[in-house]
Every structure is written in C-alpha cells, then in structure tokens.
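fyi for ur records
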Amino acid sequence: MRLGDYGHRAIWAIALPMIISNLSVPLLGLVDTAVVGHLEGPEYLGAVAVGATIFSFLFMGLNFLRMGTTGVAAQATGRSDGTALRTVLGRALLMAAALGLAVIALQVPLREFALLLIAPEPGVRILAERYIDVRIWGALSTLGNFVLIGWFLGAQNARAPLIIMLTTNIINMLLDVIFVVSLGMAVTGVALASVLGETAGFGVGALLVAKQLRRHPGEWSIAKIIDWAGIAGLAKINGNIFLRTLALMFTFGFITAWGARLGATVLAVNAVLMNFQYLMSYALDGIAHAAEALVGKAIGQGRREAVRAAVRGTLAWSALLGLTFTAVFGLAGSGLVNLLTDLESVRLAAEGYLPWLILSPLVSLWSFAYDGIFIGATRAREMRNAMAFSTLAVFLPACYLFGGWGNHGLWFAFTLFMLSRAVSMAWFWRRLEPSILEAAR
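which gave:
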C-alpha cells in the first residue's frame, strides 16, 4: 500500500460523490414545495412543511446508524476482514430494523407529541396527520439506507451511496408529480412518494451490497452478528453519537426559538443566513465522509503514516473549502440573500449580519473535519464530550451573557459554539493520537 492511497485523489474519490448526494436533498425539497405549492390552499404547503420537519428531526436523531457503521466498517476493510465487514452490516441492519419497528409501533404517541410541540392550526394539523400516517411506514427503509450508506463508505465505495441517494430522490420526485399533479393525492401523495422512493433506494442498495461483497471474501455468521458483546460495542458507539446529535439539534432549535423572541424579521433573517450555513455543510460533510473512510481504513491496516496522511489531507481540503466559502460570502453575500428573499426589510436587516456569515466557514470547517476523523477512529465518546461542553459550557452561557446585543449576541454565541467544538476536538485528538497511532502500529 502506498501513502498515495490516502492522498488528494483518494479524498476526492469519496468526497465528490457524497457532495453530489447531499445536494440532491434540497432539490427534492424544492420539488415537494413546488407540487404542493400549486394546490388550492396554503394549508397543504404548511402540512408538508410540518410533516417534513418532524421526520427530519426524527431521522436526524437516528442518523447515528450511518455514522456508527462507517468507522467500524472502514477498520474491517483496512484489515481485509470480509467476515467482519459482513458482521457489522448484519448487526447494524438488525439495529435499524429494531428501531424502525419501534418508530412504527409508537407512531401515534410520536405524532401527537410532535404536533403538540409545533401546534399548527387545525386545518394544517388534519393534513399533517395524513402525511405522517403514511410517511411513517418508510421508517424501515430510511434507517436501512442509513446503514447501507455508512457501510459502503466504510468499504471505501462512495459511488454506491450516490446511486442509492439518486435512486431514492429521483423516484421520489417523479412520484411527487404523478401522485400529486396527475392523481390529485395531495399531501398523501407526497408522503407515499417518499416511502416508495426510500424503498426503491434500499432495494438498489441491497443489490449493490452483493456486488461489493464479492470483492471482500468472507462468510456470514449469525453467531457473530448476534454476539452480545459486539452488539453492545456498536450500541455504545451509536449511543454516544446519538447524544452528540441531540446536543447539536438542541443548539439549532435554540437559535430558532431565541430568534423568534427577537421578532419576525430577525427570525426570517436567521432562516435565510442559516441556509448558507447548511449549503456550506454539504461540501464540508463530503470531506468529513472521506476522513471517516480513510482514517478508519488506515487504522484497520495498522499504518501510522497513513493515519497521519488522511488526517492532514482532510484538514487541508476542509480549510481550502472554508476559505472558498468565506470568499464567496464576502464577495456575493448580499446578492445571495437577494436570491432567497424579495422582502426589503429582511434584505436590509441581513446586511448587518453578513460579517458573521463570512466568518462562519473559517470557524466551522474544523469541527466538520474532526467529526469525520473521530468517526473513522470510532472515538464517539470524545465527540459527545466536545459537543456537550460546547453546548452547555459555551453556547448557552454566551446566549445569556451577550443577550443584550440582540441578534448579534446570538450569532456571537453560535460562533463561539463552533469555535469551541473545533478547539475541544483538536485538544482531544492531540491527547488521543499517540494511543491511536500505537494501536494502529
């Protein structure tokens, strides 16, 4: 093996397909909005927005199935252990099935609790219930796809996740048009399109698994898949990632809630500016996925130099992308805001907060990269601790200490939060690196 296997070409062989996959997600959202937005009343659009938000939060919380699978699968790939690669796939799919069945079994209390929190008006609520009652049946396929995507990344195959995502989203978009525009199924059609799209993606993914496993000779072992020590180890990784994700979701939810207290204009401004934060995340997540796969593979191979090469390369590309986004936001920030809204009050107010947006990529890029590095090294506990510290000891105190600055105080707190994540994860990595490299050796 050469260190070139962990160089720039190897990074982009994984990062580019994943960036393209990520970008298909907002495109699907635009199609959902377009087909429902032409129905006779705004309550249809509101119902889909409410339902989609509920499932976004639910599945975001369960995305540990993807992240927890990648690092373990990558290390098995590095060891050229085809049996271990099969075992982690079977074990992760077993967890996904259990969680998916639990979500379906608890669909009524979950639906009622979510709608209680959002509290939509009665007309929107009735339609949102229809959407949720159909969409919930896609839970098994959705969670199964999380596992398959994470497993393929660990196996150093980023084309398969791209195929899964494109299959899912293209079929979803086509069925949106057929069910809503042609058959007049309204919100039920949008939900059913999502279910069938996820199911089709999982079916294609299962076929690609069979092809992938031909490259990794090994055997399936039921005894190993249901080994309780192995299940407990994967559950521990997933549990730490779940807690880390909850803290992240809390932070973004808090930003929305605090912004709402500052008025409708501030809430709209923050929603517009956060869209650019999410756009940046699509690119930086692609590099993070490469870090997950390459760091895990290098550790599995027991190659210290390869671990260092993967870490250096992904940090370098993350830095370059961060600088690029800062330049774009600095040069075209006002124009980008104008593309998203024609409300003059929002445009004018957003101008005052653009410096925070310009600074954000430089501060945020490090935590994205380190997330990937830590997942590849299967060090989820440190990820959890860094996120908990940044949320509870930095973000929340800063919100209250600088609350007198209004929305600038909120953005300052968010910037400190991202900076804290970067610094704390770098500190953890500096402490962990010698033991990780020694274990790899």
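The mean pLDDT is 90. thats all i got for now
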